[in-house]
Write a structure and sequence with these properties.
single chain; 199 residues; alpha+beta; 7-stranded mixed sheet; 3-stranded antiparallel sheet; 10 strands; elongated; disordered N terminus; binds zinc ion
């Protein structure tokens, strides 16, 4: 009945080597016969022989349902059920190709990655991963406030940016101002994309 897959360790970005990147590859599932409609199975990932995560899944006609437990950083375990839509496109040489639709951006993809609570496409994974690392809007804004205070100005981002303090080199001042501007821009862009609520 079910497909038991294991030991798939995906590296799609050599920059992120320490985090476990739990991926679900539709081609891999198909190749091993785990992707037939009606299949109920489980997938697990491991790193150097140690299991780093597992999920249960079932395949229906037009969706894949994932069932797993997620634990937010320092939080309680919670049960997650994620429904992923599937679609098919015909191949040039007969048969068809099956795609996931990323639950966040709806893009058609063949691999989804476990990012925080949900499985998402590579693009959304990267954004979420980075935001969880350090770049949450609130952390970015704290950084901006620190720079403003360091320059002897008001911490409020709505106020005018502080002038260069006496005795500070222009190069230092301009560097800090650029850093603050970039962080602030990124923070608001992320808020616009609903990042703060996305866990
Ligand atoms: Zn996506």
């Amino acid at each position: 009945m079910g497909g038991q897959g294991s030991g798939s360790w995906y590296r799609w970005n050599s920059k992120t080597t320490t985090e476990s990147q739990h991926g679900i590859d539709i081609r891999w599932l198909k190749k091993h016969g785990y992707f037939r409609s009606g299949t109920i199975g489980s997938l697990s990932w491991s790193c150097r022989g140690e299991q780093t995560g597992s999920i249960r899944y079932r395949i229906e006609a037009d969706r894949m349902i994932l069932d797993y437990r997620h634990r937010p950083h320092g939080g309680e375990w919670e049960e997650v059920e994620q429904k992923i839509s599937l679609s098919r496109t015909p191949c040039n040489y007969g048969g068809h190709r099956t795609w996931f639709h990323c639950p966040r951006c709806c893009k058609r993809v063949e691999v989804l990655y476990g990012a925080g609570k949900y499985f998402l496409c590579r693009h959304c994974y990267r954004l979420t991963y980075e935001s969880q690392q350090e770049k949450t809007p609130s952390r970015l804004l704290i950084k901006v406030q620190k720079i403003r205070k360091r320059l002897g100005g008001s911490a409020a981002t709505g106020d005018l940016f502080p002038q260069k303090p006496k005795g500070m080199h222009w190069k230092t001042y301009i560097g800090l101002r650029n850093e603050a501007e970039q962080a602030e821009r990124l923070a608001w862009a992320m808020v616009g994309q609903g990042f703060e609520n996305f866990r």
